[in-house]
Each structure stands twice: as C-alpha cells, then as structure tokens.
Amino acid sequence: MMRSAVSFALIVILAASCRIDGSRGPAAGTVAQSAFFIGPQPGPDHPLPQTTNPYAGDRSVLADGRRLFNWYNCSGCHGDHGGGGMGPSLRDSLWFYGGDDASIFASITQGRQHGMPSWGSKLPEDQIWKLVTYIKSMRTPNEPDPPR
Amino acid sequence: MSRIRRAERWYIAALIGLAAAASGCDAPLQIFSSASESAARATSLTWFLIVLSGIIYVIVMAAMIVAMTRNRRRAASSVDMSDPGIRWIVIGGLVMPALVLAAVFVVSETATGRYPEQRPVLTLHVTGHQWWWEVEYDLPDPTQRFKTANEIHIPAGQPVRIILTSADVIHSFWVPRLQGKLDVIPGDTNDLRLLARAPGVYRGACQEFCGSQHANMGVVVFADDSATFSQWLGAQLAEAAPPTDSVTLMGQRLVVGGPCALCHTVRGTSALGQVAPDLTHVGSRTTIAAAMLPNTIGTLEAWIANAPALKPGTKMPTITMFDGQQLRAVAAYVASLK
Fold this sequence. Notes:
The complex is a heterodimer. Chain A is built from five helices and no strands. By secondary structure, chain A is mostly helical. The termini of chain A are far apart. Chain B is 39% helix and 20% strand. In chain B, the strands form four sheets. A five-stranded mixed β-sheet of chain B has the order 3-2-1-5-8, with no helix packed on it. A five-stranded mixed β-sheet of chain B has the order 4-10-9-6-7. In chain B, strand 6 and strand 7 form a beta hairpin. The longest helix of chain B has 33 residues. The termini of chain B are far apart. The chains are: A mainly alpha, B alpha+beta. The interface between A and B is medium-sized, with 19 and 17 residues.
C-alpha cells in the first residue's frame, strides 16, 4: 500500500515536469533561413524552408499573428478579419492553392496570381508562420480579436 | 560594548548613509537637481516632506524611548482618564497630526497646482508605444511637420507644449529634471508644459509598467539654445541623405526593397511604414532602441540582425535574410542617415 502510493506520487511528479503548456517557438539561433533571396547568392547552400508549421497548436503566437496581419496590411486587401475585399476571404473553406499550413505558407511566401504579392523576401520566415497560424485559427474558438 | 564604540558605529553608519544619498546627485535619473521651475517645486516639496517626516520621527521615537525607560514599575492594565498625562495624548495624537497634515496639504497644493502662464512656442505630440516614444513636431506650417523617435529637442528657456497619448497601453512620461510623471493613456490626451531653464541633456524613462521591456523604454530630451535648435530643426525637415558610395547604395536598396520598409519610414525613399520608429535621421540620434543602446555601427548591426536577443519581446523581428555583407551595408546606410 505504501509502496504503490510512493510510486504513484513519483509518477505524478515526473509527469508534471514535462512542459504541457506547449509554448515553445524556434529557439534562438535555430530559425531556418529563408531560401527566397534577392538574386543568386554566393556561399554554401541554404537549407530549404521548413514545411511544417513550428507554431502549430501554439496559441500564444495568435496575438502576434493578429498584430502582424494588421501591421503588414493583409487586412487592406483581405478585409479587417480576413473576410475578403480586394482579396479573397481567408475565413471560408475555399482555398485555390490549398488550405493546409504548408500551402498557405507557400502562397504567402511565393505570391499568387491576380495580385497576391510575394512576401518571402520581405518577412522573416517565423513571422509568416505566425500569420499562417492566425489564419488557421479563424472561425475557431481560439481566434484572437474575433469579429462581432 | 562600550559607549564610545557604539557612538563610533553610529557615526560610520551616518557617513555611509550620507554617501549613499549623495551618490544619487549625479545619476542621470535623479530628482534632487532640477532644471525647470516645475521640477524645482517638486524638489522643494520633496525636501519639505523629508525634513518634516524626519523631525516628527525623531520626536515620536524620543517619546517612545522615554516612555519605555521611565516608570517601568507601573502596571499599564488600566488607564485613568482623569490622569493629567491624557492631555499629551490629545495634543500629540489629535491636534499635532491635524496641524501637520493641513500644512502638508497646503504646501503640496501650492507646489503642484500651478500651471505655466506663458504661451508655448512649440507643440509636440508624443505617442507612447511598446516600447518606444513616437515624437511628432506639430509646427504651424503643415509642410514643416515631421516625426522622430525617442529623442526630443526643445528650445531652452522657452515653454514647450507636449500632447501625450498612447497607441497601445498606459505608459508614463517622466523626465525627472524637467517635470513630474504624467501618464500616457490610450484613447485620451494629456497636456504637458515643459520649460527647461538651461541647455542640457535630460534623460527620462517610462514610469508606468507597460510590458516586458518597460525598463528599457527611455527618452532623452535635449534642450538647445536657439541657434542649435533651429539648425537641428532644419536638418530634421530635410529628406533622408542619399547614399554616397556603393555600400550605402546597396544598403538603401535592401532597406527599401526588403523587410525594413514594411514597418519603418525613410522620408525621401519609398519606405513608408507607419508602425515603427521613423528612420529618416536616425544617424543623428545618440541612442537607439529607446535610449537603451548607444548609436554605434556595432549596436546598429546587432539590433538589425537580432533585436529580440537584445530586447526580448520587442516588435522588431529577427532579420534572417541578410548575409554578413548585406547586414553591413544596411547598417552603414542607416548610420549614414544623419
């Protein structure tokens, strides 16, 4: 009885030491370099950009993504909460070029037909991933500053 | 412990205390050396309260020590209200505090209630952001308005009006040698009159907790004589200095065509971002990052490459897309914007 109680307590303590809040971003110094430079680049090969969202499931970056959405004027074309305007709505389920994280990242980074600029040479990669995370949070309970 | 050695310890302690107090007199953020009339009134109020509190403290402590050491044999289980000593309690506990508090009230109101009467010669709009100060010079001629950040120049000896507001959370504008703290509130404006008596450099800081970098949100106020001030104003109104060599030319192309233009403004180029400090004349400032770092080519390169490493939480991102040569060009161009 005593032994099982002690071992149960030890397991609880070990489990509590795992970080369950999920608040981790790219560690300093390990942000992958974007492959989208201006012109040919001398020097060693640069790694391709990640294709998995490092912020997937991380709710602490949503406020940052919302701020960047307004700062970089995404709301100017796509509407105040991504509802559409000059650019298509980002809140609906219709995605011309794919609605998963990697496809949205590619659309923002490379630009698309009919007016979507290419942001890969302008924005750091982790900021584009934050925007992707924010866009994917739309119409979910996690959306920061939801439209009323 | 002999009496003489005890007295010697008190003497040493008093000397240390005095030295500690005196060492604050030449620190940049200090309240005992004022450079304007409103700061002088605040300083005299401070001294008045310190001296008054000191006197009252000594009197009360002396009375307590006397009460503890004399009449120790008398039991204090009941107090006879007809005891003549009750008069001391009424005088010392009711009348004296009422008089002292009334005096403090009158002195405080006269020290802080007055407002400079002269018309201001200059109006500034200072907007607090997390974690920097946006300064807009609101000159009467609309073509002469410009924005700068974190470093304010005012003419010495003349009243200046500063309209304070905030873009996000509550901050507080405090330049201790010039004026007391005035909160900077989003959605509202506060009116401040500054009058620096003499030319000089006056440092300030944000005084309302505003987030992770509240401690690194400084401001520097330069009070200039009229010739220096007009010269500075003329230089600030001009557009950004054009690049002079191939390195600064590459730097300008990277600033305008790269990530910098999305947030920063460099007047005279097509970089017209509105959310970050205006860089048109950043090379002429003595500090960067809201007076956190000196403005040198090394700190510029470090800030541009990885601002969050120096000021964690800052809205300026880590710029990963420049290699060494490009970073050097960008920093050289930014440093040349005098």
